[in-house]
């Protein structure tokens, strides 16, 4: 029997007046997968998450979660959904543990069970000592972790995370990644958006890169890097000599400020050639990254 | 399309209940202190000069008005400023609708809570008025269930403003242009009959507080006003209308 996708979107559109926030995307997320939505600001990632969360109706297209239609059975879907929103919306009128207990009540979890789960989750996100602290007294990283714990209180079958590590310092971010890895290892299906490409590379089994409401590419991070950036990337100072050399070799390159980036499946050859013939100043060879893929697909112009 | 909130609304109600009793010391101050101040200053102080209205000592005349005003304020301000803060600044509603709660449930819960607040305040205030001996018993006890209905009316009206206000500052318009005049011109501190006839008709036809004062006064004085049934029916039907209308407007605002 074929495995059914947890989420399936077909020809999904969302328009706000004349703005096409999501412009006909199709994707499917399989059980146990960590699936990423990447893209610059305004690409339509958050809008897509809101449609999956059943809080924003699609203008057109079909979207099913757990095989249920988001328009027809939002309650049935939301029952099994864990949501980490981009904006911190913990309840400031309560303490850390009360936030979990009250959230559990929204799901109809019996009080004794809710208390047991809340204690477990607080210890999972390393906030047990902060259990009775009011929300305003928590640091940014603690708040994000508490939101993750809150999203897990109903033992969700699908976790939806919109920028889970936004605004966190490196320590807090690594802790968050560790927790998400643990959840993934336990077989959870996770959908996340991020513009931290390192985060996507570390966590996602599969991802799409979106821009202007459309999906540009889809695949495993490694495959995308190989396909769009090459295994290795050579960088050299941007001098007329270097450019002439590269044109002679016929290598594909891009100029970014004072650096030239060369995409090649023969990086060592290119680097050797540059060093021996072209007097390049500095030359680096580094592994291709998702960031190279991202920037080459979405361009370098600033987005608001 | 009539909104269809479900029993899940009580979970939202319960959340607000929990917050209220976390800070109950502050919350219970007004319903106990306010009536004492008003009774002393206006009822007995001003009452010295007024004497009687319609054959009723002034302090007995204003006692039901204090109850009615308290029902209005506790529910209207809960479902305007407080609901707006929860919706806009705290994003509490966003968090709630990520759970099995629908937006209809959330707003219905807020409205039921506003009504409950009216009931809590009116009940506390009634206890003070009973101690002062300015309300008739046992008919005044009916004020308790009635305060829930009256609270639901003002909650619904308030929530409609919350649904259409661009920001928290613009909520001052209904507060000053609607609530304050109503506070003064609803037969609260003087009978409507002293107003020009046109104004009397307007008050009786459209001012929610005028209806609530009529009903409450009938209960605390144990003398049925000829408008009693009219006002009660007015309150019940408008409470129902604004209940659904406000949910509908909030849905339009929040589901995008």
Please mark out the parts of chain B with pLDDT under 50 across 5 or more consecutive residues, or reply none: none
Count of helical segments of chain A? 11
What best-fitting shape of chain A do the alpha-carbon axes yield? Answer: elongated
Q: Tell me the number of helical segments of chain B per DSSP (H or I, 4 or more residues long).
A: 11
Q: What is the CATH first-level class name of one domain in chain A? A: Alpha Beta
Helices, strands, pairings?
The complex is a heterodimer of chains A (304) and B (256).
Chain A lengths: L6 E10 L2 E11 L4 E5 L6 H8 L7 E6 L2 E2 L4 H5 L2 E4 L11 H11 L4 H14 L15 H12 L6 E5 L7 H16 L3 E6 L2 H7 L2 E6 L2 E6 L1 H8 L3 E6 L2 H10 L2 E5 L2 E6 L2 H11 L5 E5 L2 H9 L6
Parallel strand pairs in A: 3-8, 3-9, 6-7, 7-8
Antiparallel strand pairs in A: 1-2, 1-4, 4-5, 9-10, 11-13, 11-14, 12-13
Chain B lengths: L8 H14 L1 H4 L1 H22 L1 E2 L2 E2 H32 L2 H6 L5 H30 L10 H22 L7 H13 L12 H10 L1 H14 L6 H27 L2
Helix pairs in contact in B: 1-6, 3-4, 3-6, 4-6, 4-7, 4-10, 6-7, 6-11, 7-10, 7-11, 10-11
Account of the 3D structure:
The complex is a heterodimer of chains A (304) and B (256). With 304 residues, chain A is of the alpha/beta class. Among the domains of chain A are: 7-80 and 157-225, P-loop containing nucleotide triphosphate hydrolases (Rossmann fold); 230-288, Reverse transcriptase/Diguanylate cyclase domain (Alpha-Beta Plaits, 2-Layer Sandwich), CATH 3.30.70.270. Chain A contains 11 helices and 14 strands. Chain A has helices at 45-52, 74-78, 96-106, 111-124, 140-151, 170-185, 197-203, 221-228, 240-249, 267-277, 290-298; strands spanning 7-16, 19-29, 34-38, 60-65, 68-69, 81-84, 158-162, 189-194, 206-211, 214-219, 232-237, 252-256, 259-264, 283-287. Chain A has a 6-stranded mixed sheet with strand order 6-7-8-3-9-10, sandwiched between helices. In chain A, strands 2-1-4-5 form a 4-stranded antiparallel sheet. In chain A, strands 12-13-11-14 form a 4-stranded antiparallel sheet, covered by helices on one side. Chain A is elongated and about 75 Å long. In chain A, 44% of the residues are buried. The model of chain A has no long low-confidence stretch (mean pLDDT 89). The model of chain B has no long low-confidence stretch (mean pLDDT 94). Chain B has one domain. The two termini of chain B are 17 Å apart. Chain B is globular. Helix content of chain B is 76%, strand content 2%. Chain B has a two-stranded antiparallel sheet with strand order 1-2. Chain B has 256 residues and is mostly helical. Chain B has helices spanning 9-22, 24-27, 29-50, 58-89, 92-97, 103-132, 143-164, 172-184, 197-206, 208-221, 228-254, and strands spanning 52-53, 56-57. Chain B contains 11 helices and 2 strands, in the order αααββαααααααα. The chains are: A alpha/beta (304), B mainly alpha (256). The interface between A and B is medium-sized, with 27 and 21 residues.
């Amino acid at each position: 029997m074929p495995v059914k996708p947890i989420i399936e979107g077909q020809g999904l559109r969302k328009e706000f007046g004349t703005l096409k926030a999501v412009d006909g995307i199709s994707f499917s997320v399989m059980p146990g997968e960590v699936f990423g939505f990447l893209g610059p600001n305004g690409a339509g990632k958050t809008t897509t998450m809101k449609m999956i969360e059943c809080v924003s109706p699609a203008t057109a297209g079909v979207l099913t979660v757990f095989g249920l239609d988001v328009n027809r059975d939002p309650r049935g879907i939301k029952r099994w959904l864990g949501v980490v929103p981009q904006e911190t919306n913990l309840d400031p009128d309560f303490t850390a543990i009360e936030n979990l207990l009250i959230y559990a009540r929204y799901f109809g979890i019996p009080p004794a069970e809710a208390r047991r789960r809340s204690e477990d989750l607080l210890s999972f996100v390393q906030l047990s000592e902060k259990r009775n602290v009011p929300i305003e007294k928590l640091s940014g990283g603690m708040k994000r972790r508490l939101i993750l714990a809150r999203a897990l209180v109903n033992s969700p079958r699908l976790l939806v995370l919109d920028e889970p590590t936004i605004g966190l310092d490196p320590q807090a971010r690594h802790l968050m990644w560790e927790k998400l890895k643990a959840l993934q290892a336990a077989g959870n299906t996770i959908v996340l958006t991020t513009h931290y490409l390192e985060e996507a590379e570390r966590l996602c089994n599969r991802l799409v890169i979106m821009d202007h409401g459309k999906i540009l590419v889809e695949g495993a991070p490694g495959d995308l890097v190989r396909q769009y950036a090459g295994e290795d990337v050579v960088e050299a100072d941007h001098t007329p000599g270097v450019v002439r050399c590269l044109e002679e070799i016929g290598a594909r390159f891009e100029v970014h400020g004072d650096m030239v980036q060369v995409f090649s499946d023969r990086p060592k050859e290119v680097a050797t050639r540059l060093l021996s013939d072209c007097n390049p100043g500095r030359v680096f060879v580094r592994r291709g990254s998702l960031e190279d893929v991202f920037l080459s697909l979405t361009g370098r112009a600033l987005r608001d | 399309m009539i909104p269809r909130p479900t029993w899940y609304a009580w979970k939202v109600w319960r959340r607000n209940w929990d917050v209220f009793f976390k800070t109950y010391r502050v919350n219970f101050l007004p319903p106990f202190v306010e009536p004492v101040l008003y009774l002393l200053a206006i009822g007995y102080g001003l009452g010295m000069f007024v004497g009687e209205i319609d054959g009723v000592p002034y302090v007995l005349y204003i006692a039901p008005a204090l109850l009615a005003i308290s029902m209005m304020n506790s529910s209207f301000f809960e479902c305007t400023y407080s609901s707006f803060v929860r919706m806009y600044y705290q994003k509490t509603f966003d968090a709630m609708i990520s759970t099995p709660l629908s937006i209809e449930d959330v707003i219905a819960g807020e409205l039921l809570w506003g009504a409950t607040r009216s009931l809590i305040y009116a009940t506390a205030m009634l206890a003070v008025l009973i101690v002062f001996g300015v309300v008739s018993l046992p008919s005044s006890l009916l004020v308790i269930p009635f305060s829930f209905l009256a609270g639901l009316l003002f909650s619904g009206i308030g929530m409609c403003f919350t649904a259409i206000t661009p920001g928290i500052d613009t909520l001052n318009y209904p507060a000053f242009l609607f609530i304050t005049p109503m506070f003064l011109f609803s037969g609260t501190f003087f009978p409507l009959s002293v107003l020009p006839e046109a104004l009397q008709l307007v008050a009786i036809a459209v001012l929610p507080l005028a209806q609530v004062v009529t009903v409450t006064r009938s209960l605390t004085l144990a003398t049925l006003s000829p408008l009693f049934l009219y006002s009660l029916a007015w309150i019940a039907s408008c409470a129902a209308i604004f209940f659904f209308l406000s949910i509908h407007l909030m849905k339009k605002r929040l589901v995008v």
